[in-house]
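Each letter names a residue; structure tokens follow underneath. Both lines appear below:
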Amino acid sequence: MIVGVFTMTATWVGGGYINGTAEAVYLAVDGTGGGLAWVQAPVGYSLSLVLAGIIFAKPMREAGYMTMIDPFQKRLGTWMGAVMVLPAVCGEIFWSAAILGSLGSTLSVIIGLEMWISVIISACVALLYVVIGGLASVVYTDVIQLLCIAAGLVTAVPFALKHEAVGDLFAPAANSTSVGWLGYVEGKSWGVYIDTYLHIIFGGIPWQVYFQRVLASRTPGVHRFCQY
């Protein structure tokens, strides 16, 4: 159960997620209406996990499917299943590139390692432990990953607050009704704001990286508990 909670969280929480969240808050600095108000991924992806757990987890698990494409292939045929694999594979490739890119940029800043070198090393390490340990290695490295992320973020807070590049947290924003880092949503931006939330919530469901965890759970009940 504990490992399940960690691996479900790791469905979305990784290097790209952490770096992207920091970037979204920082956008408030240039007066574009960024800030914490525009950090939509944590709330949106959490809701996507809850909805997927309520609607899809139990029937997918009880049907004994191996991938998220299986029910479509069963209903629409083998060729349609093969076609539907293409966007799923592209999504996973781009997501993996984002993760490796965030790791490369982090290492290049912290230890001065060339970004392309850190990306290649990281990719080789990931491939090695997956080839050797299979899905179990992915699950247990999820646990290690989240513990390291939590420890790293807590450790970084005092250094970040004292760094000269960090401004005053209580400085007024471009909109005088809010604090700078909190951000705000302008009237003309509400359409984009709502559309982005819908995209994250419903677009966060059809990912094989999520369904591999659904279908690997011992029972549908265990998976649902881990999500909630």
